Amino acid sequence: MKKHYRAFILDLDGCVYIGDRLIPGSDRAVEKLREVGVKVMYLTNNSGHTSEEYCDKLRNLGIECVEEQVLTSGEAAATYIMGSSGRSKILPITGRGFKEYCKRIGHTLLPIERWDEAEYVVVGLDREVDYRKLRAGLRAILKGAKFVATNADRTYPTPDGLDPGAGAIVAALRESSGVEPVVIGKPSRIIMESALRRLEMEPDEILVVGDRFETDILAGKNIGADTALVLTGVSRREDIVDLPQNLTPTYVAEDLLKLVELIYA
Fold it and tell me: Which among 13, 182, 188, 189 counts the fewest CB atoms within 10 Å?
């Protein structure tokens, strides 16, 4: 049953664009939401870039954006650590975006040679990960550093196929250390509750939209929000068969534009 939402929380990769290519109609979908008075927040598990960089990318693709509309798992992770422990010594196995937020907040970023000083080991999508980084992360965790994952996505969509995601790196340290990380990004309530606070809204006022059952849809379900799956990224229509209730979306649409047209026709 269609209803009016005050805000859409949109995934980026696989929902609005793939790589540097706009998914056709996404710009018109966002414009339609603006016209009908629906706020848009972009929520990404990718910790490799800052909100400013994501906004620049969206503007280059023809979508209006201000930095406050973007929340990354990197920013959420840096903020989570500040709220839990204050300024901390962090061994990062991540992309540059998380590191930038740590610098802004005042955390100390450690090189791998100083792993024994780490109070936190934070893992995200690091395309330069190697055995030395994994060894440093493992030893820091075994010594007592808290293990945090910006996200645990198994794969990452690109224009020419799927790449290994942050979850592949997280799994290596989880298996070797025997320690479960605190996961910040979707489907964790941590990043979702941060998004709700920024929007100043309740879960029943928003629609969570993405291309993955196990992250985007589950994230919305975990806070009691309605959800929508778009078929432009990882999940496919045939994957919907026999889904458990906690992964069944409220809506399914071929793409973001068709979803918006379905709800606001």
Answer: 189
pLDDT, one tens digit per residue, over 18-48 is 989 999 999 999 999 999 999 999 999 999 9
| DSSP result, the chain | -----SEEEE--BTTTEETTEEPTTHHHHHHHHHHTT-EEEEEES--SS-HHHHHHHHHHTT----GGGEEEHHHHHHHHHHHHHSS-EEEEES-HHHHHHHHHHTPEEPPGGGGGG-SEEEE---TT--HHHHHHHHHHHHHTPEEEES---SEEEETTEEEE-HHHHHHHHHHHH--PPEE-STT-HHHHHHHHHHHT--GGGEEEEES-IIIIIHHHHHTT-EEEEETTSS--GGGGTT--GGG--SEEESSHHHHHHHHH-
**Rounded distance between C-alpha atoms, residue 232 and residue 211, angstroms:** 7
Instruction: Write the CB contacts of 139 (distance below 8 Å, at least 6 apart in sequence).
Output: 115, 116
Q: How far apart are CA 129 and CA 141, in angstroms?
A: 17
- What the chain holds in terms of domains, given with CATH numbers, is 7-45+186-264 (3.40.50.1000), 74-183 (3.40.50.1000)
Rounded Cα distance, 210 and 229, in Å: 5
104 Cβ neighbours under 8 A, 6+ residues apart: 78
Task: Give per-residue pLDDT as tens, 214-251.
Answer: 999 999 999 999 999 999 987 878 878 778 878 899 99
> Stretch 90-118: mean pLDDT, rounded?
97
Which pTM does this prediction carry? 0.91
pLDDT at 183 (0 to 100): 98
Per-residue confidence (pLDDT) for residue 202, from 0 to 100: 97
